[in-house]
Design brief:
Elements (H helix, E strand, L loop, with lengths): L4 H24 L6 H23 L2 H8 L2 H26 L3 H22 L6 H21 L4 H18 L5 H25 L10 H27 L2 H7 L2 H12 L7 H26 L9
Helix pairs in contact: 1-9, 1-11, 2-4, 2-8, 2-9, 3-8, 4-7, 4-8, 5-6, 5-7, 5-10, 5-11, 6-12, 7-9
């Protein structure tokens, strides 16, 4: 029996956001490396990792055809810039002890994702989704107003990730091909920057620091896998559903900030975090009830 597409989409989405939620622990290990250098290594080693996948899958022809498409090239150039900006701001926030502030961005992002789905793709939402979105909106607005200042870190992360998911959903190519082209377009800038750090002696990629070298190389795998999962999920699930599942990532980031890195837990954070989890519970219960009460219409052939 064929596995339902939605179930596969859920698995990809939860896999992506679980990895993203736990990545602050990894980026903290690279706190000694400037954020821009970390991003450059992420691009280069992601390209190496993706190239190996493309060779194994014999997908090089797909990459060539994508590069020959003006529409695909423009879209992937834009999405590449969006995701690189997201990486840069996020790594900077983690290494500067602002993980909770970064998690705010990933709380806002699902709202923008679902809004894009409803306004631009005319996606319909269930009652449980609308109630969950309303609760989540209240949580985010409460947090923003309580902080007393514009959350530029969170806003940047939310906007870049939401737009990235929206544009990639509209481009019908495989996740591996799309991400490979994105990193290929970013690679010249990344290599130029890394060459500059080597020339001026500021590079942290040195055989004298083998542990740090290994962490930078592994960043390519840890960058590519969740993005591949996320893009695949965005192709299989409505943006409204994808938006709700995105709360997995900031929830885990919040817990990492609190339990691993000792960032202070304010009453504002506690209230907004509790409301977010309530929104998720409302959505999950609503979807479960809808599934269990749906009439069976399958026939055997």
């Amino acid at each position: 029996m064929k596995q339902p597409t939605s179930r596969v989409g859920y698995a990809y989405a939860l896999g992506a956001h679980t990895m993203w939620g736990l990545l602050p622990i990894y980026w903290k290990m690279l706190a000694a490396v400037p954020s821009l250098e970390v991003i450059a290594h992420r691009v280069v080693w992601s390209l190496v990792f993706l190239a190996s996948i493309c060779l194994a899958q014999r997908a090089c022809g797909d990459i060539v055809r994508t590069l020959a498409s003006t529409r695909a090239l423009i879209t992937l150039g834009a999405t590449g810039c969006l995701i690189a900006s997201n990486w840069l701001v996020y790594v900077w926030a983690v290494t500067n002890d602002r993980i909770m502030e970064a998690s705010l961005g990933y709380f806002i992002s699902p709202l923008l994702t679902m809004a894009l789905g409803a306004l631009l793709l005319k996606e319909k939402s269930s009652i449980s989704q609308r109630v969950a979105i309303t609760i989540a909106l209240i949580a985010v607005l409460y947090r923003i107003t309580s902080e007393g200042q514009f959350p530029w870190v969170g806003s940047t992360l939310a906007i870049t990730l939401s737009l990235y998911g929206f544009f990639r959903k509209r481009l019908v190519i495989s996740p591996v091909t799309g991400l490979s082209v994105e990193t290929l377009l970013l690679a010249p800038l990344a290599l130029a920057y890394l060459s500059t750090t080597v020339a001026n002696g500021s590079s942290h990629f040195s055989i004298q620091q083998p542990g740090l070298m290994a962490l930078l190389v592994l960043s390519g795998v840890l960058t590519s896998l969740p993005l591949l999962f996320f893009v695949r999920a965005s192709q299989l699930l409505p943006l409204s559903t994808l938006g709700i599942l995105q709360y997995t990532s900031p929830s885990l980031q919040f817990l990492a900030a609190l339990c691993f890195f000792g960032e202070p837990l304010s009453m504002t954070s506690l209230v907004s975090f509790s409301l977010i989890w309530l929104a998720i519970a409302v959505y999950v219960v609503g979807e479960w009830r809808s599934h269990n009460y749906r009439p069976t219409t399958e026939t055997t052939t």
